[in-house]
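Hi everyone, sorry if this is the wrong subforum. Our group has a chain we'd like a structural model of before ordering constructs, and none of us has done structure prediction before. Sequence below.
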Amino acid sequence: MDAALAEAALCLVGVRFRLHGRAPETGLDCVGLVAAAMRGAGYAPRAPEGYSLRSASVTRWLGHAEQSGLHPAQVDGDVVLCMANPVQPHLLIVVPCGFVHAHAGLGRVTFLPDPLPWPITMQWHLADKDH
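Answer:
Right subforum, don't worry. Here is the predicted structure as tokens:
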């Protein structure tokens, strides 16, 4: 777990949910949350645009992860991708004892304690900050 990313994510708990939201002041979705937390931890993410809330595949967007300095991990990733249902991919940030994520149903960024209720599809580690 990247401590700076986890701390930045925890500081965003309570921020309003907004689909395609990229700024904490106006709201974040799960992609915006990861981007905002990465910026808060000193990274320069390149978040994708133009996706829908529901999608059966994220293949089209995976290049953004590598461009943002995220590298695939087999275990213990800093950022995880789950399938909240068969057509709803969802990104979460690993923090002590759980995860931070943008919860559309609750309308805000929230803490989710371990264990995850959804299967992990992919996960990533953060690279060096010069990416």
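For your construct planning: The chain has one domain: 3-126. Strands lie at 22-23, 27-28, 70-72, 79-85, 88-95, 98-103, 108-113, 120-126.
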